[in-house]
Amino acid sequence: MPKRLLALLLVLPALVMIVLFFIVPLFASIVGAFEVGETFGLGNFSKSFELYSSDMIFTVVIVAVSTLLIGFFSIAIGGYLTLGENPRAVALLRWLYRWPMFIPFIVVGQVLRTFLAKNGLMNNVLVSLGILTPLQTVGFLDWRGIVIAFVWKQTPFVTLLLAGAMASLDRSTIEAARNLGASRLRILIEIVLPQVAPTLLVGLILSFVTMMSVLSVPLMINAQSPTMLTADIAFRINAHGDYGVANALGLISLLLTAGVALIYLRQSMKERA
Amino acid sequence: MDMRAFLKVEKMSVGYGTTTVLDKLDLGIEKGEFVALLGSSGCGKTTLLRTIAGFAKPFAGSIQVADRDVTQMPPDKRGMALVFQSYALWPHMTVAQNIGYGLKLQKHSRGDIDARVSEMQNLLGLSGLGNRKPGQLSGGQRQRVALGRALAVDPEILLLDEPLSNLDARIRLTVRHEIRSLQKRLGITAIHVTHDREEAMVMADRIVIMNAGRIEQQGSPEEVYNKPATPFVAAFMGAENVLSMQVSVKGEQIELQEGAFNAATVTARAGRRLATGPVELRFRAEAASLTGNGDGAALEPGALELRGQVASVSYPGGHWRHAVRLGKDEILVDADTPFDQGATVKVRIPAQSLFIFNTPEGPAGPHTF
After folding, report:
1. Which family does the record assign (chain A) (predicted)?
2. Coarse DSSP helix, strand, coil percentages of chain B, rounded to the nearest 5 percent
3. Is A172 within 8 Å of B84 when comparing Cβ atoms?
4. Mean pLDDT over the full length of chain B
5. Does domain B7-231 sit in CATH 3.40.50.300?
6. Domain ranges (residues) in chain A
7. Does the CB of B142 have a partner CB in chain A at under 8 Å?
C-alpha cells in the first residue's frame, strides 16, 4: 500500500496542474456557453448562429483551403529535398524554407498587410515594372490574404515534419523504383508519399488546429465581415463583455477541431489494426 | 581479361566527394556468368556494384554492356536489375504490386502484368501470397519477392547486393542454392556482392576478391582457394595461420631455412613467384596434421614440419582444434583425435598447402579483419 501511495504522491503535482489550469477552465467555459443570465439554455448558441453562421463557414473554408495548400507545398518542398539531384539547390532550399517558422503570426500579418494592400509593396513593384497600371491593382487584404499568411507561416512546419519522415525512409526503396525506371514525380507520389502519409496527416491536423486559433492574422489582414471565429470571440468579449456567446463560439470551434482530430484517430486506429 | 566480355568495366574510378573508392578498376564478365564480388566491408565491392547499376557516377572510365556504352545512362536503361540488401520492398504495396511495378512503369497492359506476376510467383514459390503486404511475410519470402521484382522486368544482368545477409543462417543455405539454380535455369548474367567466403564459393562461377578498392585476385572458386595470389587472398580464403621465415630460391627449388621451430625444408617452387629473402608463410588449420613428438613416420617430400606445444584444445565439431604455441606465435591445427594440453607435438603441412609470399619490407603482421 505505501508504494501505491507514493506513486500517487508523485503524480499528484502534475495532476493538480492539469486539473487546475486545464480541466477547470475548459469545463467553466463549456458551462459558460450554456449560461443565459441566471439559467441554462441554448440562447448563446442561437445567437451565435444568428450573428456568425457566415463567419463559421468562412473560417472552415479558409482553414480547409489553407490546409490543402500547405499539404501541397510541403509535399513539393519535402519531395525536392528528398529526391532533388542538384545538391546546391537542395542545400539552398533546406536553408531557406524554415525561416517563416520563426516569425510570429502577428508579424506575419503585419508584413503581409504592407505587402498585399492595394497600394502595398507588391502592387507598387508590379506597377513600377509596368506589368499593371495603378487602376488595375487589386488588394489581397481579404480571405486571400489570410490564406496566404497561413500557408506562408505553416508550410515550413509541416515540411519540417514531412522532410524528416522522408529522410528516414529506407533510401533503397527509392533506388529500387529508380532502378525500374520510375520518374521522380512517380517516386514521390507512388513510393515516398504513401510511406509518409501518417506524418503528413499529423502535420496537417496540427496546422489546422493552430490556424483555427489564430487571432492576429484575421485582425491584421481582414478587419471586415465576414471574418474568422477567433476575431468574433475577441470582439464579443472586448466590445460587449458577452462571455456567454464567446464561450458558445469557442465550443463551436472546439467541435470543428474535434471533427478533424477524429479523422486522425480513426486513421491511426486503422493502421494499428 | 577477355576483350569481348558481355559486361566490361574499363579503367573506372569512383568515389564520394574527394575520396576515391575504386581507382582505375578493370573487370570483364561473360554472358550467363555468375560472378561473386568478395571482400570485407569497406573494400569497395558495393560501390562497384552500385556504379555498375548506375547509382554512383564514375569520375573516369567506362562501363559497357554488349559493346554499348552505358556509363552515363540512368539505372533503368542499362538492362540491369538490382536486388537490395534490405530488399527495399515497398511496404504499402502488396506482393503482386511490388513484383508488377516495373512492368507497370513500362506501360504493359493489365493482363500482361498479371500473367507475368503470377509466372514470377510460381517460379519463386510465392503462389497465393500475391495479396499480402511485405510486413506479413517471412524474411525468406521477402527476399524472393525482391528477386521476383527484379526478374519480372527480364533484365540482362541481375545485380545482388548481399541479398542473403539478412536471412537466418539455416534459410541462407537453401536460398544460396535456390538463387544459383534459378540463375542457371534463366541463363541470366549475375553479379553477387558478399563478404561470406563460403557463399561466394558455393554460388559463383568466378570469384573476384577485392581489397582496399583493388581487385586482388579473380578466378574459379578452386583457383582462389588453392592458389591464392596474395597474402590477403590467402588469409581471406581461410589460411589464417601465419609464420615469418627466410627462403632461398634455387632454380625450381625453394629452401625454407631452419628456424627456432623447424628444420630446413626444400620444396618445389611449383609456379610460385618468389625471391630469396624474408617471407610470410600461410596455411589453413585443416590442411595441417598433428602427430605426437615420438611419432617417427616419414615426412612426405616437400612438407614442412614444425615443433610446438599444445596451448589449448577445443571441439568446434567434426574435429579437434588445437592452438599450438611456437615461441611467441600461436597457430591453429585440426586433428581427428585430441592431444593433451602442454604436449609437445609435430605439425606437418604438405607442400601444396603452403602459401608463401615475399614480405615487402620488414616482418608482416597477420592481417586483421
Report:
1. Belongs to the binding-protein-dependent transport system permease family. CysTW subfamily.
2. 25, 35, 40
3. yes
4. 89
5. yes
6. 50-272
7. no
Task: Looking at the structure, give the CATH architecture of the domain made up of residues B239-358.
Answer: Beta Barrel (2.40)
β-pairing verdict for B19-29 and B34-38: unpaired
Closest chain B CA to residue A87: B17
What per-residue string of b and e applies to A162-176 under the rule 16 or more CB within 10 Å gives b? bbebbeeebebbbbb
Q: How many other CB atoms are there within 10 angstroms of residue B191's CB atom?
A: 26
Q: Does domain A50-272 have CATH number 3.50.50.100?
A: no
Q: How many CB pairs under 8 A join A and B?
A: 59
pLDDT, tens only, A70-112: 999 999 999 999 999 888 999 999 999 999 989 999 999 999 9
Closest partner CB to A175 (pick from B88, B92, B102): B88
Which residues of chain A make contact with B55, given a CB cutoff of 8 A? 175, 178-179
Element (H, E) at B219: strand B214-219
DSSP code at position B337? S
How high is the pLDDT of residue A266? Answer: 84
CB contacts of B84 in chain A (<8 Å) are 172, 175-176
For the record, the C-alpha cell of A57 comes out as 463557414
Quote the radius of gyration of chain B (alpha carbons, Å): 25
3-state secondary structure of A258: helix
The answer to whether B181 faces chain A, any CB pair under 8 Å, is no
Chain B residues with CB-CB distance to A195 below 8 A: 90-92
Residue A24 corresponds to which amino acid?
V
Cell of A168: 528516414
Give me the mean pLDDT over the A143-172 stretch. Answer: 94
Domain positions in chain B are 7-231, 239-358
Look up residue B296 and give its amino acid.
G
How is chain A split among helix, strand and coil, in percent rounded to 5?
80, 0, 20
Chain B nearest CA to A163, separation (Å)? 18
Residue linked to cell 500579418: A109
Does any CB of chain A come closer than 8 Å to the CB of residue B84?
A: yes
Domains B7-231 and B239-358 belong to one CATH topology:
no
Poorest-pLDDT segment among A54-68, B73-87, B243-257: B243-257
Distance CA B141, CA B151 (A): 15
Contact A178 B92 (CB under 8 A): no
